């Protein structure tokens, strides 16, 4: 089973390496740095130990987690902890040993574990991961929690009490947010857009794998460049959710190689003040949302006061509701609400 | 297979009372056994029900008939009947009062009505039993009748009556046992290696597996929350959320210190070692019954330092939660999703805190009694797994089972051991109940 998916992965890697984007550049795995496959049979535990040390020597981040996750994946589990006891001390078959070496060599090139094993978990979903599509971070799991709590609290706001909730996600990446919402809310319909064709494809694939494709529309659109098209597609949406690129451009070079070399910069770099896409979303929001519709944003901890001031000065119909903190106590999420003035209110009722 | 296992369960050794089991007519044996089977819904709390100091000798295990022969039981039943009639009179009389006391009367009346409806099934069974006993007495005179045909008929009827009496007594005993709130809940199982280093950890792993299979055997879900392994494949500490019908009831007697005696895999000179591990069985509170203030929690993750968010990509999704007022800690790295790890750690933490609260309450309630409960009970050695003799002995009831491997499968043998514990526990609860009645009466 894993062999099939792995060989499929190989094909996709192949074309990426020689692809026009030149994503891999000089970071192609150097075979000379990979330890030789041992001649004798080894156990999974030995292989994990060997690679852990090798990763550590070569300065690869999280050496132990990396080798454990790769081994667990090869043995058919998600984590070492959930692996059946005793499996680690069994000998690896020659094929598995070879796979372990192939995958670990990729990790050695600083490829993120999530891309190496081509999947990761987001809340209760297992999603396919593929470079250069942004790998969802744990904070975004909390963003989804915020949206879910609110949507479950007050069903059917906006156009009529029985109206379905509709949601727009800007920058869907692998589809983590949209698919989690769809999975938890069986009545919800979602439109997702992303500026990257890779992201649009991956979101579609993940939706299909999870059987959630019927209530999801994915479009290859850039909110900044294709604003008119976005507006024509989305009207009277009750929820606008986004984990937009929010890094300050000056911070980009300080990123770990895992991020800087492998993930799509367009999903990370938010311009000089990290607000480029955020401002665009908030400018369009009044035209996209139904009255009292809400915007949920994941942002940089420096952003919330800036966003509040900017919205108050620039977007009349949006009210800043509150800032929420992430699990570690950083101000991470902004919630805003559309409050129409009287003259627009009429328009909204139609 | 099942019968062989059942035979294995017969007590052996000093503390056992095989003589008593043999002396009793077979129908009594069956009766006691069925008593416990019917009582799963009404048994007492985990630890309170079992003596831990001296082994509970099965000699004390009384049959239904013996229980009913006790004066204390008869007195208790009379007392319940009196209470019932009083409540009924008060409830149906109703009305009266007025002014300031009206509200008070109303509350009292409601309490009495509740009591009536609670006692009604028991009272009904007691009355049915009375009727049956009178009927039996009547047929007994017919047994001595001159007409052979009539005698035969009377004999049949007499037999039927005796059976009905047995059934009713059974039912009354079940209804007498108070229901414990925790019995209806799911649970969190915790195993921790004790004395004995690596060997204790290896044994802890085997015991954890045994309970996983026990859960499977009963069709309960078994969701691992914490799992901390040792270098050579042992288990330092683990916890799991277990849920399913009867799960807490069937698991609660497992709490305590389990001792293993064997030549460890790690031992080079073939010497026998004695090691221990501890099992805790904590009822899982519902969100409503037990709340934790989020301000009292400190949540620790790998991502706590630095900017977090899009700046960082880590695969370390472990979550550790500290409850600041008590210092109780729960952690989980079972999942790849951080929010899932947080949920699981919260589950473990809630169960730990709830367990502490329950323990505090029960020890306050029962500290006058000789029966060991709570923490004390948990620190007592409850069971020994002796590999060279291929036996498992439960020290609380002095019961020995042979075939350790089958026992560790977590199927019939463990189940039967639990049934025996349940049986003793039920009787202890009943004795406590009757003892209290006597004191009240004097």
TrEMBL record, chain A:
Keyword Methyltransferase attached: yes
Database matches in InterPro entries: DNA_methylase_N6_adenine_CS (IPR002052), HemK-like (IPR004556), N5-glutamine_MTase (IPR050320), PrmC_N (IPR040758), SAM-dependent_MTases_sf (IPR029063), Small_mtfrase_dom (IPR007848)
Reaction equation(s) it catalyzes: L-glutaminyl-[peptide chain release factor] + S-adenosyl-L-methionine = N(5)-methyl-L-glutaminyl-[peptide chain release factor] + S-adenosyl-L-homocysteine + H(+)
One Gene Ontology cellular component annotation held by this UniProt entry: mitochondrion
GO biological process, one term: methylation
Keyword Nuclease among UniProt keywords: no
The protein's Enzyme Commission number: 2.1.1.297
GO-annotated molecular function: nucleic acid binding; peptide chain release factor N(5)-glutamine methyltransferase activity
Annotated coiled-coil segments of the chain: none
Domain Methyltransferase small: 163-246
Top-level taxonomic group: Eukaryota
Domain Release factor glutamine methyltransferase N-terminal residues, every copy: 51-117
UniProt xrefs under SUPFAM superfamilies: S-adenosyl-L-methionine-dependent methyltransferases
Segments passing through the bilayer: none
Keywords: Methyltransferase, S-adenosyl-L-methionine, Transferase
Enzyme class of the recorded protein, top EC level: transferase
PANTHER family: HEMK METHYLTRANSFERASE, MTRF1L RELEASE FACTOR GLUTAMINE METHYLTRANSFERASE
Protein name: peptide chain release factor N(5)-glutamine methyltransferase
Native source organism of the sequence: Zoarces viviparus (Viviparous eelpout)
UniProtKB/TrEMBL annotation, chain B:
Name by which UniProt lists this protein: Prokaryotic-type class I peptide chain release factors domain-containing protein
A GO term for molecular function: translation release factor activity
InterPro entries cross-referenced by the UniProt entry: PCRF (IPR005139), Pep_chain_release_fac_I (IPR000352), Pep_chain_release_fac_I_sf (IPR045853), Prokaryotic/Mito_RF (IPR050057)
UniProt xrefs under Pfam families: PCRF, RF-1
Domain of life, source organism: Eukaryota
GO biological process: mitochondrial translational termination
UniProt cross-references to SUPFAM superfamilies, sorted A to Z: Release factor
SMART domains hit by this protein: PCRF (SM00937)
Family: Belongs to the prokaryotic/mitochondrial release factor family.
Keyword vocabulary terms for this entry: Coiled coil, Protein biosynthesis
């Amino acid at each position: 089973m894993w062999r099939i998916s792995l060989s499929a992965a190989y094909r996709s890697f192949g074309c990426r390496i020689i692809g026009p984007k030149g994503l891999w550049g000089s970071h192609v795995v150097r075979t000379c740095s990979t330890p030789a496959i041992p001649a004798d049979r080894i156990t999974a535990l030995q292989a994990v130990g060997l690679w852990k040390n090798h990763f550590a020597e070569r300065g690869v981040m999280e050496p132990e987690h990396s080798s454990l996750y790769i081994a667990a994946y090869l043995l058919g589990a998600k984590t070492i902890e959930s692996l059946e006891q005793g499996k680690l001390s069994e000998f690896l078959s020659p094929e598995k040993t070879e796979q372990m070496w192939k995958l670990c060599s990729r990790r050695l090139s600083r490829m993120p574990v999530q891309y190496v094993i081509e999947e990761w978990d987001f809340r209760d979903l297992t999603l396919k991961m593929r470079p250069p599509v942004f790998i969802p971070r744990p904070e975004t799991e909390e963003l989804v929690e915020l949206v879910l709590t609110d949507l479950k609290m007050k069903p059917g706001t906006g156009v009529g009490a029985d109206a379905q909730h509709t949601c727009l996600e800007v920058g869907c990446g692998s589809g983590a947010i949209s698919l989690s919402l769809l999975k938890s809310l069986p009545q919800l319909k979602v439109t997702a857009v992303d500026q990257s064709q890779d992201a649009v494809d991956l979101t579609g694939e993940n939706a299909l794998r999870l059987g959630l494709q019927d209530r999801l529309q994915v479009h290859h659109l850039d909110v900044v460049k294709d604003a008119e098209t976005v507006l024509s597609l989305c009207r009277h949406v009750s929820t606008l959710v986004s984990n937009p690129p929010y890094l300050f451009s000056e911070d980009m070079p300080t990123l770990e190689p895992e991020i800087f070399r492998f993930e799509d910069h367009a999903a990370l770099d938010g311009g000089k003040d990290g607000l480029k896409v955020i401002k665009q979303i908030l400018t369009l929001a009044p035209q996209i949302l139904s009255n009292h519709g809400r915007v949920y944003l994941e942002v940089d901890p420096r952003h919330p006061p800036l966003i509040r001031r900017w919205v108050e000065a620039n977007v009349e119909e949006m009210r800043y509701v509150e800032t929420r903190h992430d699990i570690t106590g950083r101000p991470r999420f902004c919630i805003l609400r559309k409050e129409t003035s009287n003259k627009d209110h009429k328009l909204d009722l139609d | 297979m099942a019968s062989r296992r059942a035979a294995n369960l017969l007590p052996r050794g000093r503390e056992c009372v095989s003589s008593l089991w043999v002396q009793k007519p077979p129908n009594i044996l069956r009766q006691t056994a069925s008593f416990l089977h019917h009582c799963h819904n009404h048994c007492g709390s985990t630890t309170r029900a079992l003596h831990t100091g001296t082994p509970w000798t099965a000699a004390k295990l009384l049959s239904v008939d013996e229980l009913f022969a006790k004066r204390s039981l008869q007195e208790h039943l009379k007392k319940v009947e009196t209470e019932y009639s009083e409540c009924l009179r008060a409830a149906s009389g109703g009305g009266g009062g007025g002014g300031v006391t009206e509200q008070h009367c109303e509350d009292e009346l409601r309490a009495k009505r509740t009591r009536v409806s609670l006692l009604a099934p028991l009272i009904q069974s007691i009355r049915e039993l009375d009727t049956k006993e009178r009927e039996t007495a009547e047929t007994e005179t017919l047994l001595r009748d001159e007409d052979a045909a009539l005698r035969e008929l009377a004999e049949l009827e007499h037999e039927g009556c005796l059976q009905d009496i047995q059934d009713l007594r059974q039912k009354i005993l079940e209804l007498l046992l108070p229901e414990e709130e925790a019995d209806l809940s799911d649970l969190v199982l915790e195993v921790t290696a004790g004395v004995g280093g690596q060997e204790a950890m290896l044994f802890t792993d085997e015991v954890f597996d045994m309970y996983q299979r026990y859960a499977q055997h009963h069709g309960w879900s078994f969701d691992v929350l914490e799992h901390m392994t040792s270098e050579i494949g042992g288990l330092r500490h683990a916890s799991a959320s277990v849920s399913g019908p009867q799960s807490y009831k069937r698991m609660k007697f497992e709490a305590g210190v389990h001792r293993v005696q064997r030549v460890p895999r790690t031992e080079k000179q073939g010497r026998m070692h004695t090691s221990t591990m501890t099992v805790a069985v904590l009822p899982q509170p519902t969100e409503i019954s037990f709340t934790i203030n989020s301000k009292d929690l400190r949540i620790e993750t790998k991502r706590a330092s630095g900017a977090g968010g899009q700046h960082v990509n880590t695969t370390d999704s472990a979550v550790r939660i500290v409850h600041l007022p008590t210092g109780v800690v729960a952690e989980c790295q079972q999942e790849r999703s951080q929010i899932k790890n947080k949920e699981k750690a919260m589950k473990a933490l809630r169960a730990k805190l709830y367990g502490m609260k329950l323990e505090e309450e029960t020890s306050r309630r029962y500290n006058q009694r000789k029966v060991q409960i709570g923490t004390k009970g948990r620190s007592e050695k409850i069971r020994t797994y002796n590999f060279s003799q291929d036996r498992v002995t439960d020290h609380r009831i002095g019961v020995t089972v042979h075939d350790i491997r089958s026992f560790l499968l977590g199927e019939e043998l463990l189940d039967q051991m639990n049934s025996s514990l349940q049986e003793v526990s039920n009787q202890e609860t009943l004795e406590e109940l009757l003892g209290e009645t006597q004191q009240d009466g004097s």
